[in-house]
Design goal:
This protein has 604 residues and is α+β, with helices and mostly antiparallel strands. It has helices at 44-48, 90-97, 99-103, 123-144, 198-211, 263-266, 270-294, 308-317, 336-349, 364-383, 385-430, 439-453, 458-470, 475-509, 515-532, 553-587; strands spanning 29-32, 34-39, 55-59, 62-65, 77-79, 82-84, 111-117, 148-160, 163-166, 174-175, 177-180, 184-187, 193-194, 214-215, 223-224, 227-238, 247-256, 322-329, 353-356, 360-361. Strand 9 (163-166) and strand 10 (174-175) form a beta hairpin. Helix 7 (270-294) runs parallel beside helix 8, helix 12 runs antiparallel to helix 13 (458-470) and helix 14 (475-509) runs parallel beside helix 16 (553-587). The longest helix is centred in the C-terminal third of the chain and has 46 residues, at 385-430. The radius of gyration is 54 Å and the shape is elongated. The protein binds adenosine-5'-diphosphate and magnesium ion (MG). Adenosine-5'-diphosphate (ADP) binds next to helix 4 and strand 15. Residues 40-41, 43, 117, 119-125, 220, 223-224, 259, 328 line the site of adenosine-5'-diphosphate (ADP).
Length: 604
């Protein structure tokens, strides 16, 4: 039923409290409830009737059953975060089992410490000592942290027969429980008093204890018949407002439960029996809640609302709080069944996980101060001209760049549209049979041919090409361009003829050379002859006057288009001749020794 952990192994814990100096991160931390067991010494009464002690603290974390053999299924040893034996003083129980959690409240983390156990097991005794120690520590911390300003408030309630009562305002009657969307369950109209100092706090806690319902039972002369919750609210903020406007607020709950009891043992009748029933019912709900929270499937319904106790403790049991439970038990063999129930509860509780976070608050006053500082900072920044100016200049520069890019884009668009319309117009004018022709294409061919001749400067070529490309749709301009091309072509032919003449002379000089050279020369002569026959008609190019006359543009273009073939043929032939000349020159013994003038293609 109850699994025990090996001694010395703290499987249920993660990192502990953040540093006690407020200002740490507000990240939430998942953490299991810190569970300890305190075994009280046998009471005078128990010793008198020679009750046997059935439990032994094997080490600081393990408690072992040492009584006569019992139910075989029952475990013999249980392990918790800490186990305190009968001789352990309450201050040590506080140090080892509650201090760490309690002090979290000083750093803005909600904390709850409660005692659970059967009647007369020592809950009230323990919680009294723990509360006192915690109060001492809180005040010590406040004294040691002068840079922060602390405000301690106290409220206290008891749940008696499922009625919530204000222990600081006993006349206020029954208080209602409300569900606050932000804070969770709250007790309506619960009085909260600001604590002046340590003595004042002690005094107020004393009032709570006086007000608490106690009654005599067979087990305890002053048995607590109600659950008591003393709540300290700890607020703190830095005295000097620097850049940090954080304040912390957290509640620290000291919960002293009424003890679970068996009517047979407490001999309760009448009012005591009724109290016992309520006590047991709320404790049973608490056990159910803890069991459900500790089980694997936590997604199911958790019956917090089944009792006022679990409703009020909801956040402390599974929410934004760090929680420590001190389970108290009597060592007497006669209470072994109740003690095992307590240990079972404790075993479940140690599996419950809480998610505590630092609660930071910003008061209106602090917020206003912070905003004022921020406004002042921004104003100061604006007053520095350099920074403001530089950003303005930067923006202006970017604007200018964008404007230039837009202009460029517009120009490109216009150019594109212009080219398209020119092309379209040309196509229209040329008719369907001229499809595929364009001025640039033609100029490219011309350029290729003329470049081969080497007689034209590249810049001149670019001018021609540009003039052709830029030629408007005016037929006259186009005709001009065509004529220019023809002139250039003729010039090319003249230059080619001159080259042929030079070649003839070279050939004459070497006609008595070797066989290979003779063959090459013969081939060359044939090619030259053929080349000369490419353009039989060597007519003069008629220049066009601005008035315009002569042939129709369409005819001009057709003629030029047909000449493209001639130009291409001529170009091919010239390339052939060039190759033959190169070959010839290479085959000659030493060109520089020849009596004839040197021949270079570049001189053509
Ligand atoms: P509970 O609140 O669990 O019903 P109490 O705290 O009232 O039990 O304790 C019952 C009695 O046992 C009291 O007289 C108390 O002084 C005594 N007692 C409890 N725990 C210890 C302890 N650790 N050492 C000495 N006496 C204790
Ligand atoms: Mg008590």
């Amino acid at each position: 039923m109850v699994a025990s952990r090996p001694p010395g192994v703290l499987t249920s814990k993660i990192e502990r409290t953040p540093s006690l100096t407020p200002g740490g991160s507000s990240r939430s931390k998942e953490e299991k409830i810190f569970v300890t067991v305190r075994v009280r010494p046998l009471s005078k009464k128990e010793l008198a009737v020679k009750y046997q002690s059935a439990w032994e603290c094997a080490n600081s974390q393990t408690i072992t059953y040492k009584g006569p053999p019992q139910d075989r299924a029952a475990p013999t040893s249980y392990t918790f975060d800490k186990v305190f034996g009968p001789s352990c003083q309450t201050n040590l129980v506080y140090e080892g089992g509650a201090k760490d959690v309690a002090m979290s409240a000083l750093t803005g983390i909600n904390a709850t410490i409660f005692a659970y156990g059967q009647t007369s097991s020592g809950k009230t005794y323990t919680m009294r000592g723990v509360t006192e120690s915690a109060v001492s520590d809180i005040y010590r911390h406040m004294e040691n942290t002068p840079e922060r300003e602390f405000v301690i408030k106290i409220s206290a309630m008891e749940i008696y027969n499922e009625i919530v009562k204000d222990l600081l305002q006993p006349d206020s009657g029954s208080l209602r429980l409300l569900d606050d969307p932000e804070k969770g369950p709250i007790v309506e109209k619960l009085d909260e008093q600001i604590v002046r100092d340590r003595e004042h706090l002690r005094h107020l806690i004393g009032i709570c204890e006086e007000q608490r319902q106690v009654g005599e039972t067979a087990l305890n002369d002053t048995s607590s018949r109600s659950h008591q919750i003393i709540r300290l609210t700890v607020e703190s903020r830095l005295r000097e407002v620097s850049g940090c406007v954080k304040s912390f607020v957290a509640s620290l709950n000291f919960v002293d439960l009424a003890g679970s009891e068996r009517a047979a043992q407490t001999h309760a009748i009448g009012a005591r029996l009724k109290e016992g029933c309520h006590i047991n019912r709320s404790l049973l709900t608490l056990t159910k809640v803890i069991r459900k929270l500790s089980s694997e499937k936590r997604s199911g319904h958790i019956p917090y609302r089944d009792s006022k106790l679990t409703r009020i403790l909801q956040l402390s049991l599974c929410g934004n709080a760090r929680t420590a439970i001190i389970c108290t038990m009597s060592p007497a063999l006669t209470h072994v069944e109740q003690s095992r129930n307590t240990l079972f509860f404790a075993t479940c509780a140690k599996e419950v996980t809480n998610t505590a976070k630092v609660n930071m608050v910003i008061s209106d006053k602090q917020l206003v101060k912070h905003l004022q500082t921020e406004v002042a900072r921004l104003e100061a920044e604006l007053r520095i001209p350099d920074r403001a100016g530089s950003s303005e200049i930067l923006i202006m520069e970017k604007d200018e760049k964008i404007r230039q890019m837009e202009i460029k884009m517009e120009e490109l668009k216009k150019e594109r549209d212009n080219a398209c319309s020119q092309l379209e117009e040309l196509r229209k004018k040329m008719g369907d049979n001229q499809q595929g022709w364009n001025s640039f294409d033609s100029s490219q061919k011309a350029r290729k041919c003329l470049t081969f001749s080497g007689s034209l400067q590249p810049s001149k070529m670019i001018k021609i090409r540009n003039s052709i490309r830029q030629s408007s749709t005016a037929p006259l301009t186009l005709k001009h361009e065509i004529r220019k091309l023809e002139q250039l072509q003729q010039q090319l032919e003249v230059e080619a003829n001159r080259a042929i003449e030079v070649l003839h002379k070279q050939v004459e000089c070497h006609k008595h050379g070797n066989q290979g050279v003779a063959e090459t020369i013969a081939k060359l002569q044939a090619e030259i002859r053929e080349m000369q026959s490419v353009r039989p008609e060597n007519r003069d190019v008629e220049m066009i006057t601005d008035e315009g006359n002569g042939s129709d543009l369409k005819d001009e273009i057709s003629r030029l288009h047909m000449q493209d073939n001639d130009i291409a043929k001529l170009e091919a032939k010239l390339e052939n001749v060039q190759r033959s000349i190169d070959k010839l020159v290479m085959s000659l013994p030493n060109v520089s020794q020849l009596s004839c003038p040197p021949f270079t293609t570049g001189s053509l």
